[in-house]
Every structure is written in C-alpha cells, then in structure tokens.
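Data deposition worksheet. Section B asks for the primary sequence of the deposited chain exactly as it was used as input, without tags or linkers unless they were present during the calculation. Section C holds the resulting structure in token form. Section D is free text for depositor observations; keep each observation to a single sentence. Incomplete worksheets are returned to the depositor.
Section A, Depositor: J.P.
Section B:
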Amino acid sequence: MKLLMFDAGYFWFNTYSKTIENLEDIERKEKIENTAVVFIHVESEDEIRKSNVIKSAIGNLKWYLNKVNKDKIVLHSFAHLSSSKSSPEFAMEILSLIDEKLKSKGINVYTTPFGYFSEFSIHVRGESLAKVFKEI
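Section C:
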C-alpha cells in the first residue's frame, strides 16, 4: 500500500466518469475545508497481508492527523502510485475498512466515490509535513 498524505486548506472534487460499470451511478461534488487528504493505492501484495496493511495504514493516518493537528481526513483511491494493483473489489474493501476504523476512533472521514475518475482541486500547505509519502 502507498499513502500520499497532504495537509490541505481544502479539497474539492466532482465525480467525472465511472470506471467500473457495475457500480451505482453517483454524481457528487464536495468541498472539504481544513483537512488532511490521503491518496491511497492498494497493491496486489496487500491481498495476502490484509490485517497488517490495515493496521499499519490506520497507525500512519492517525500519526499524520496528529502531526498536522487535524480531526478530519479525505480518503481518495488513487491507483497511480505503483504499477502493482490489487483487484478493484479488494481495494474497495480496504478503503471501506479504513473508513470504518477511523470513524470508530472519532475521526471525521470523507471518502470520494470508488471507481470514478474525479476532477479535483487541492490546496496543500507549504510546511514540510504538509506532504508525506508512506509505503506500507
């Protein structure tokens, strides 16, 4: 799994086109202000180490939220951080589990629609920790 994390003044997105046919049709536009944003890439090797990947992801995301002093996060599936890709079904399951576990810890979580290309705009702060990459 790859995590590209940002401390953002805002993250705006608008669903553009569906990439997985059997998903429900979603038209969604949203702007989330003063948030952490994480681009998540789930890799094929994550399928055999599911529980460790989820545990490490949660630990890294909680660490990052603490470092940038945020209580909300945007989870955005971004399958462009590695050439290794899990199945879409597995990636969707992992994102859903991460969403649930973060919410159970009192964190406000916004998840962009899985299986969609979205146009987006992000304002990333300038500090060093405003941009962090983690490989799990």
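Section D:
The chain has a mean pLDDT of 95.
The first strand starts at residue 2 and ends at 18.
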